[in-house]
Amino acid sequence: MAVKQGKAVILNYLIPLHISYLAKAFPLKWVIKKSKDIHLYAINPITGKKEVVATIHATVNTDTGTGNDYVDLEFWINGKLKIQRIELIAKKIKLTGGHEFFFGCPMTGKRKRKLFLHDGRFVSRQAIPHGYYLSEVQSKKYRNGIRDLKRMIRYQNTMKQGKKSNFKKHYAGNPTKRYLKVIEAAGKLNRSW
User: Fold this and answer.
1) Are strands 131-132 and 9-10 parallel, antiparallel or unpaired?
2) 144-154 pLDDT, tens per residue?
3) How far apart, in whole angstroms, are the C-alpha atoms of residue 7 and residue 4?
4) Given its phi and psi angles, is residue 79 left (phi above 0), alpha (psi -120 to 50 degrees) or beta?
5) Using alpha carbons only, what angle is made at residue 22 by residues 123 and 121, rounded to the nearest 5 degrees?
6) pLDDT digits over 40-64, tens only?
Protein backbone atom coordinates (compact mmCIF):
# COMPACT_ATOMS: atom_id res chain seq x y z
CA MET A 1 0.00 0.00 0.00
CA ALA A 2 1.41 3.38 -1.01
CA VAL A 3 1.94 5.94 1.74
CA LYS A 4 0.30 9.30 1.02
CA GLN A 5 2.55 12.31 1.37
CA GLY A 6 1.38 15.69 2.64
CA LYS A 7 -0.19 17.31 5.65
CA ALA A 8 -3.38 15.68 6.89
CA VAL A 9 -6.54 17.79 7.04
CA ILE A 10 -8.75 16.75 9.97
CA LEU A 11 -12.36 16.88 8.74
CA ASN A 12 -13.78 16.99 12.29
CA TYR A 13 -12.44 20.55 12.67
CA LEU A 14 -13.71 21.87 9.32
CA ILE A 15 -17.10 23.56 9.00
CA PRO A 16 -19.62 21.06 7.57
CA LEU A 17 -22.70 21.88 5.51
CA HIS A 18 -25.14 18.96 5.58
CA ILE A 19 -28.21 18.66 3.38
CA SER A 20 -30.32 18.21 6.54
CA TYR A 21 -29.41 21.80 7.57
CA LEU A 22 -31.14 23.02 4.41
CA ALA A 23 -34.04 20.61 4.91
CA LYS A 24 -34.67 22.06 8.39
CA ALA A 25 -34.56 25.64 7.11
CA PHE A 26 -36.43 25.14 3.82
CA PRO A 27 -39.17 22.77 2.69
CA LEU A 28 -37.19 21.10 -0.12
CA LYS A 29 -40.27 19.20 -1.32
CA TRP A 30 -41.94 22.01 -3.26
CA VAL A 31 -41.09 24.59 -5.86
CA ILE A 32 -39.52 27.37 -3.83
CA LYS A 33 -37.17 30.29 -4.00
CA LYS A 34 -36.42 31.42 -0.44
CA SER A 35 -33.60 32.98 1.54
CA LYS A 36 -32.66 32.33 5.14
CA ASP A 37 -29.71 32.48 7.54
CA ILE A 38 -28.35 29.07 8.58
CA HIS A 39 -26.01 28.46 11.52
CA LEU A 40 -23.15 26.02 10.92
CA TYR A 41 -21.55 24.07 13.75
CA ALA A 42 -18.10 22.56 14.20
CA ILE A 43 -16.37 20.69 16.99
CA ASN A 44 -14.07 22.79 19.15
CA PRO A 45 -10.75 20.88 19.26
CA ILE A 46 -10.06 21.97 22.85
CA THR A 47 -13.43 21.38 24.53
CA GLY A 48 -14.80 18.72 22.13
CA LYS A 49 -18.21 20.44 22.08
CA LYS A 50 -20.26 21.60 19.09
CA GLU A 51 -20.19 25.37 18.67
CA VAL A 52 -21.70 27.80 16.18
CA VAL A 53 -18.76 28.85 14.03
CA ALA A 54 -20.44 30.50 11.08
CA THR A 55 -23.71 31.87 9.84
CA ILE A 56 -24.35 31.72 6.13
CA HIS A 57 -27.10 33.34 4.13
CA ALA A 58 -28.59 30.69 1.86
CA THR A 59 -30.92 31.25 -1.10
CA VAL A 60 -32.52 28.04 -2.34
CA ASN A 61 -34.17 27.63 -5.74
CA THR A 62 -35.88 24.29 -6.33
CA ASP A 63 -38.10 23.21 -9.17
CA THR A 64 -37.87 19.44 -9.24
CA GLY A 65 -39.12 19.07 -12.79
CA THR A 66 -36.58 21.34 -14.50
CA GLY A 67 -33.25 20.19 -13.07
CA ASN A 68 -32.39 23.82 -12.33
CA ASP A 69 -32.04 23.36 -8.57
CA TYR A 70 -29.33 25.21 -6.71
CA VAL A 71 -28.42 26.94 -3.48
CA ASP A 72 -26.55 30.25 -3.36
CA LEU A 73 -24.41 30.68 -0.24
CA GLU A 74 -23.09 33.99 1.05
CA PHE A 75 -20.55 33.83 3.88
CA TRP A 76 -17.58 35.76 5.25
CA ILE A 77 -14.07 34.30 5.43
CA ASN A 78 -11.08 36.33 6.63
CA GLY A 79 -13.04 39.55 6.20
CA LYS A 80 -14.01 38.81 2.58
CA LEU A 81 -17.51 38.08 1.34
CA LYS A 82 -17.66 34.79 -0.56
CA ILE A 83 -20.55 33.76 -2.80
CA GLN A 84 -20.84 30.18 -4.00
CA ARG A 85 -23.52 28.42 -6.03
CA ILE A 86 -23.94 24.71 -5.34
CA GLU A 87 -26.09 22.47 -7.49
CA LEU A 88 -28.89 20.54 -5.79
CA ILE A 89 -29.58 17.13 -7.30
CA ALA A 90 -33.09 15.70 -6.82
CA LYS A 91 -33.35 11.92 -6.78
CA LYS A 92 -36.76 10.33 -7.02
CA ILE A 93 -37.71 8.05 -4.13
CA LYS A 94 -39.38 4.91 -5.49
CA LEU A 95 -41.32 4.00 -2.36
CA THR A 96 -43.02 7.34 -1.68
CA GLY A 97 -42.79 8.98 -5.09
CA GLY A 98 -41.18 12.09 -3.57
CA HIS A 99 -37.72 13.54 -4.06
CA GLU A 100 -34.55 13.41 -2.01
CA PHE A 101 -32.00 16.18 -2.42
CA PHE A 102 -28.22 15.96 -2.55
CA PHE A 103 -25.46 18.51 -3.11
CA GLY A 104 -23.50 18.32 -6.33
CA CYS A 105 -19.84 18.74 -5.34
CA PRO A 106 -18.36 21.71 -7.28
CA MET A 107 -14.99 19.93 -7.63
CA THR A 108 -15.84 16.27 -8.23
CA GLY A 109 -19.42 16.56 -9.54
CA LYS A 110 -20.55 13.66 -7.32
CA ARG A 111 -23.76 13.54 -5.27
CA LYS A 112 -23.01 14.22 -1.61
CA ARG A 113 -25.03 14.84 1.55
CA LYS A 114 -22.22 16.71 3.31
CA LEU A 115 -19.80 19.36 2.09
CA PHE A 116 -16.89 20.88 4.03
CA LEU A 117 -15.59 24.45 3.97
CA HIS A 118 -12.00 24.09 2.71
CA ASP A 119 -9.87 26.85 1.19
CA GLY A 120 -12.84 29.22 1.00
CA ARG A 121 -15.20 26.83 -0.81
CA PHE A 122 -17.65 24.12 0.16
CA VAL A 123 -16.40 20.85 -1.35
CA SER A 124 -16.87 17.13 -0.70
CA ARG A 125 -14.48 15.00 1.31
CA GLN A 126 -12.97 13.48 -1.84
CA ALA A 127 -12.00 16.94 -3.11
CA ILE A 128 -9.88 17.67 -0.01
CA PRO A 129 -6.34 16.33 -0.40
CA HIS A 130 -5.30 14.22 2.59
CA GLY A 131 -8.67 14.72 4.32
CA TYR A 132 -9.21 12.37 7.25
CA TYR A 133 -11.54 12.12 10.19
CA LEU A 134 -9.82 12.24 13.56
CA SER A 135 -10.59 8.58 14.26
CA GLU A 136 -8.72 7.59 11.08
CA VAL A 137 -5.41 9.06 12.24
CA GLN A 138 -5.58 7.96 15.89
CA SER A 139 -4.43 4.49 16.90
CA LYS A 140 -6.94 1.93 18.08
CA LYS A 141 -5.26 1.79 21.49
CA TYR A 142 -5.63 5.57 21.88
CA ARG A 143 -9.30 5.53 20.80
CA ASN A 144 -10.08 2.70 23.23
CA GLY A 145 -8.35 4.58 26.05
CA ILE A 146 -10.37 7.74 25.36
CA ARG A 147 -13.59 5.69 25.17
CA ASP A 148 -12.84 4.05 28.55
CA LEU A 149 -11.98 7.41 30.10
CA LYS A 150 -15.27 8.94 28.91
CA ARG A 151 -17.16 5.93 30.25
CA MET A 152 -15.52 6.31 33.67
CA ILE A 153 -16.35 10.04 33.74
CA ARG A 154 -19.98 9.19 32.93
CA TYR A 155 -20.06 6.68 35.82
CA GLN A 156 -18.57 9.26 38.18
CA ASN A 157 -21.20 11.83 37.17
CA THR A 158 -23.94 9.25 37.80
CA MET A 159 -22.49 8.54 41.25
CA LYS A 160 -22.43 12.28 42.05
CA GLN A 161 -26.23 12.36 41.62
CA GLY A 162 -26.55 9.99 44.58
CA LYS A 163 -24.82 12.48 46.87
CA LYS A 164 -27.25 15.34 46.26
CA SER A 165 -29.35 16.41 49.22
CA ASN A 166 -32.69 15.85 47.47
CA PHE A 167 -31.79 12.40 46.13
CA LYS A 168 -34.29 9.70 47.15
CA LYS A 169 -32.96 6.19 47.56
CA HIS A 170 -36.29 4.51 48.28
CA TYR A 171 -39.92 5.13 47.49
CA ALA A 172 -42.70 3.07 49.10
CA GLY A 173 -40.10 0.64 50.43
CA ASN A 174 -38.55 -0.08 47.02
CA PRO A 175 -35.29 1.34 45.63
CA THR A 176 -35.82 4.03 42.99
CA LYS A 177 -34.62 3.56 39.40
CA ARG A 178 -32.13 6.40 39.80
CA TYR A 179 -30.70 4.79 42.93
CA LEU A 180 -30.31 1.48 41.07
CA LYS A 181 -28.44 3.32 38.30
CA VAL A 182 -26.11 4.85 40.89
CA ILE A 183 -25.43 1.42 42.43
CA GLU A 184 -24.80 -0.04 38.96
CA ALA A 185 -22.43 2.82 38.04
CA ALA A 186 -20.51 2.35 41.32
CA GLY A 187 -20.09 -1.36 40.60
CA LYS A 188 -18.91 -0.75 37.04
CA LEU A 189 -16.51 1.95 38.20
CA ASN A 190 -15.01 -0.38 40.83
CA ARG A 191 -14.63 -3.17 38.25
CA SER A 192 -12.88 -0.83 35.78
CA TRP A 193 -10.16 0.05 38.33
Assistant:
1) parallel
2) 998 888 899 99
3) 9
4) left
5) 20
6) 888 777 777 888 888 888 888 876 5
